Amino acid sequence: MSNNLPKIAWIGLGIMGSPMSENLLKAGYEVTGFTLEQDKLDRLAAAGGTAAGSIAEAVRDADVIITMVPASPQVEAISYGPEGILENAKAGALLIDMSSITPQTSVDLARNAEEKGIRVIDAPVSGGEAGAIEAVLSIMVGGEQADFDEALPVLQTLGKTIVLCGPHGSGQTVKAANQLIVAVNIQACAEAVVFLEKSGVDLNAALDVLNGGLAGSTVLTRKKDNFLNRDFKPGFRIDLHHKDMGIVTDAARNVGAALPVGAVVAQLVASLRAQGDGGLDHSALLRAVERLSGSQV
């Protein structure tokens, strides 16, 4: 299959990466992927993509390289070194890192890539697994206007709200703020759920009416069934939210911003992880509130 669309390499086919890469395939892009799990490579091939045996093989002919891995150490591992992206991609390629990492890691990556003639934008996302599947992600971007403009058609295949927020690292800063708001919001909902249930109110009815007023939110809409059914199958794992709360706490300290409520919620996320719930969805903050309220979990 040959067309005029840029050839895409995709590194990192997890909960988010797999459905996102499949949306590009559906839109007619050629996608060559690499990830550590063989079953994810098989899934990509079944969807019409090409499975590569290494990062080097995946990126060699790519016009656009998209990365979606868990955190800064993984971004550095796939980008640097003889087997990494920067040594093996062609000059002029555009690297779109959609991982959620520290703003400084994004700034450093862009600077190191520039020496190889590779352009970079940081483009972390919000919307979780459902947003990835439905291609309605919110994508916050840091980098140069020209590179953003070039990436836009690809990003429009993956998301709905796509905004250039400033220079390299700005996308990550906005993503950190996003994770702060989401975690505090989930915590507030979790506290309300426990309060309502202990009061003997019909939880389903209560959440419906709350979501229709000022207390309503995307978080409540997306997570209502998780709360009602105690279904904590991960769309976004506590482990990753713990990582993100570390990013926002650290970045806020660096710029001199106080996050008093965010700091408390960061500790609640950390405690949930310490109790062995790191693999659960972040709506499992409800479990921490239940423990504090004396409920059996």
From TrEMBL:
SUPFAM superfamilies: 6-phosphogluconate dehydrogenase C-terminal domain-like, NAD(P)-binding Rossmann-fold domains. Keywords: NAD, Oxidoreductase. The keyword Oxidoreductase applies. Residues 169-288 form the 3-hydroxyisobutyrate dehydrogenase-like NAD-binding domain. The keyword NAD applies. GO terms for molecular function: 2-hydroxy-3-oxopropionate reductase activity. InterPro entries: 6-PGluconate_DH-like_C_sf, 6PGD_dom2, 6PGDH_NADP-bd, HIBADH-like_NADP-bd, HIBADH-related, NAD(P)-bd_dom_sf, Tartro_sem_red. Its EC number is 1.1.1.60. Residues 7-166 form the 6-phosphogluconate dehydrogenase NADP-binding domain. Pfam families: NAD_binding_11 (PF14833), NAD_binding_2 (PF03446). Belongs to the HIBADH-related family. This is 2-hydroxy-3-oxopropionate reductase. It comes from Streptomyces toxytricini.
